[in-house]
Amino acid sequence: LSTGEVLKNLNKFYKRKEIQRLGAENGLDARLFHQAFISFRKYIMESSSVSADLHIILNDICCGHVDDLFPFFLRHAKQIFPMLDCMDDLRKISDLRLPPNWYPDARAIQRKIIFHAGPTNSGKTYHAIQRFLSAKSGIYCGPLKLLAHEIFQKSNDANVPCDLVTGEERVYANEDARQAPHIACTIEMCSTNTPYEVAVIDEIQMIRDPARGWAWTRALLGLCAEEIHVCGEAAAIDLVTELMYTTGEEVEVRNYKRLTPLTVLDYALESLDNLRPGDCVVCFSKNDIYSVSRQIEARGLECAVIYGSLPPGTKLEQAKKFNDPDDPCKILVATDAIGMGLNLCIKRIIFNSIVKPTINEKGEKEIDSITTSQALQIAGRAGRYGSSFKQGEVTTMHRDDLVQLKEILNEPVRPVKAAGLHPTPEQIEMFAYHLPDATLSNLIDIFVSLSQVDGLYFVCNIDDFKFLADMIQHIPLNLRSRYVFCTAPLNRKEPFVCTTLLKFARQFSRNEPLTFDWLCRHTKWPLAAPKNIKELVHLEAVHDVFDLYLWLSYRFMDMFPDAVLVRDIQKKLDDIIQVGVCNITKLIRASQSVAAPGTAEIVSEDFPLSRTKRDTRAVSDRHGAKSTEALSVAVDVLGERRAKNLRAYRSATRQEDLKSRGRGSLANRLLREGLLTQEMLRQLESEWQDQHRNGRYGLGSKRDDQSSSKEMGKKKK
């Protein structure tokens, strides 16, 4: 046979519409058809010999009968894609078009749905909680442990016995560990089998969250309660109404307005010298948190610090410190972690940046301006009702950010369009029955590729699940245990936590209990107070390891038997971390003193930092190379996803910034190479003018030179 002729006819076979239609009828969609053909072509072209019947067909197709090759192609496709033999069954299992039917207990009763809609600080959750407290039984479902703990505390203080249930903790109101009629829990932990009089689902707009949205969908459709009180943004009203229409339940909407006025100021802060008591500077990265907090304390002011990876106890202590009128700490530096879960006495919110790194629905990393929903959630923390500040204010650190912030706040909040779904362990087990040789990661991939959802739903991002599934694939575990390990709540960017999960799984597979002594050896407990930022970050990771142990202890009690002891040392670790955070500026100085010359980045992050989309701040790639042009391109691409009518304006402004501030060939070259930012250039101009006025230009002391070099090193990205 002529190799060239065979290849030409194989490609002709691939392009035939009739063949593609036959493939689709046998379960080969366009992607699988393409992959199967590539494999089939490689098999034929690279085999030294083929079977006699295939050889005859190959000879025939050279005479024009290419369709006769299909049975051999399909046989090969089924060898590499075993699910083709049971495609009908798999499609039925992965059919996600009727999620309400997954909850027969909820469908057996007629539930009353009440939507409390309003902005932050409008009292919507307060009214829902009042009904929760007056009910004979109830469940509160919140997005954070802090929120669940707050309702748990509030209920018991009101003499309404209430249990606390989170992934890592069970606290009973009754001393004999009898279940109380009321429960406050994180939303993933709610029971869809227990009947309640009242259920409260907080922050319902998170039903669209790419990673966790499935938990709100499950609670909304599955909670077995006579009354479901849903709290959140008005943007979710239409979706909730449509979802409840499919269950035959009506939605009563109660609208609330903000209880205290919120004013967007006409001027930016521009300098940390202009800070006042009650100010909160909001940053979107740890590095900015560290930088801003150090600059504040350099001015003789004390500040509290709150960011996402801090333990809940430390966040509460920092919030308490900031709220205490007798404490000298009057300034707060925080990430958007303050958006929910903490009661703070804030007078003015100051956005240090309006650009935030995010993960989109496809699991891809993006850098974009904060959304209207995010801006309102954060800005709304100012002027909380009942605090010492009767009016809230919001502004930005930089003047040119203020215009864009006003545009964002004036835009309507985008309506929530779809609710998240996630495959259940039962569905994956049924898949595994049909595909016994497939890995868990492959099972999930196949499930998602075959799943069918209607327009009201989407399948949540499963990248974290697949990451853990691949990481522990080589460890012999039964499917249900493997699934549980892969749903463990951990940050996959923390190597120490991921390594610990791997060790947990390995020892679990050998049926060796994970004891307190083993965990102490692994974490090198007891631990000392941190001496620099790197040690503080490690302590935060160790705290996450203890959380992971406690989370697993409630799922495999016999294999993780020492939960009580671990909780005790976790509280001690929380205290150690609190000491570190209280001395954070000392840790920053210590970190920079041991850093290599010219190095200033304290904690590596996956996202580059930029003040606004108009900045030309450099973005470091994985190899440390920096390219201002790359950021400009990336920013332009991201800009198209937001308001297109603003893109030309922002691009023009960016070029104008370069022209006006990047004077001189050296400045331009430093900007292009990413060694200088607009912020640094403005500061240098200001310092030069001050020195010139004082007659000190060019005559700075050696100490001044060294200080300037350190400052440049600290800011360089």
TrEMBL record:
Subcellular location(s) per record: Mitochondrion
Gene Ontology MF terms in the entry: ATP binding; hydrolase activity; RNA helicase activity
Catalytic activity: ATP + H2O = ADP + phosphate + H(+)
InterPro entries: DEXQc_SUV3, Helicase_C-like, P-loop_NTPase, RNA-DNA_Helicase, SUV3_C, Suv3_C_1, Suv3_DEXQc, Suv3_N
EC class name: hydrolase
Chain segments carrying region Disordered: 687-717
GO biological process, alphabetically ordered: mitochondrial RNA 3'-end processing
Alphabetized CDD domains for the sequence: DEXQc_Suv3 (cd17913), SF2_C_suv3 (cd18805)
Domain of life: Eukaryota
UniProt name for this protein: ATP-dependent RNA helicase SUPV3L1, mitochondrial
Organism: Opisthocomus hoazin
